[in-house]
Amino acid sequence: MSDLAGSFENSNSKPLSADAHAAAELDRSSRAVRRTRRASSLGQILANSLIASQRGSTALLRLSRPSKRNALDNAMIAGIENFMSDPPEGTRAIIIYGEGKHFSAGVDLAALSESRAQGGSITFSRAFHRAFDRIENSEIPVIAVLQGAVIGAGLELAAAAHIRVAERSTYYALPEAALGIFPGAGGAVRIPRLIGAPRMTDMMLTGRTYTAEEGMPLGLSQYVVDDGQGIAKALELAEKVAANATLSNFAVLQALPRIARMDPDGGFLLESLMAALTTGDDEAKARLDAFFRTRAANAAHSPNGDDL
Length: 308
Prior knowledge:
Helix content is 54%, strand content 13%. By secondary structure, it is of the alpha/beta class. It folds into two domains: 3-243, 2-enoyl-CoA Hydratase, Chain A, domain 1 (Alpha-Beta Complex); 246-301, Lyase 2-enoyl-coa Hydratase, Chain  A, domain 2. The strands form two sheets. It has a six-stranded mixed β-sheet with strand order 1-2-3-4-6-9, with helices on both faces. The longest helix has 20 residues, at 282-301.
């Protein structure tokens, strides 16, 4: 990742890890965390392989398992769910990114094998669903910064984010079929929405991969930047996101995806309801009043009195 990432984390971030006792009591502890928001901006219980930091109103969550190419195991998934269930107070945008050369090479196969041996494959998959649902259905916009391997469950994680910034080193792959398995972290639902079922079928059956440049027009990312510039771009986007009206961001994240999946009549109705809800909000009224005052002032100073 970029030097920028290391520079602000060294000065502004604080690792948050669960000790052995907290890990054993994760379920009970996470409920307590949800009930009690600490005054601290980083009051979550996270796995050792997750590091949270804060940059103004933007929270950053780093996948910190570079020796495993940030492969996702039970502890990381529980930590992501916990973090997304109770983001730091005052957070207006969230950035998720990977430490090292890769975003995530997918599920930790050792953890998958262990869950299968214990008869818990469905439970394992559903844990991923809960965590990634927290991302997709978050009231706070989530930006994923991608680099290197975005493979399997790593791509499923990225697909749950609202905005994806890919560095040029990024490549996308879905190797599950070659391993004799099937996506289990929501990818079978989310990835076809981005690139279509035929392309996902091709990726899984033939092992086809896409580069960052190839993936952007397909919908795998919205932005492509030079290597090392992903976090800087994400912070720039997070600043713009944070400047929006809170209710407007809520409508974009919660209503827009549902409208896209609805029949047209239902979609038109929900659109009208959200339009009425947002325009009636006090923050929207204040912003519109400010806009009209500015436009009136500009018109008054125009040589021709034009309405600017």
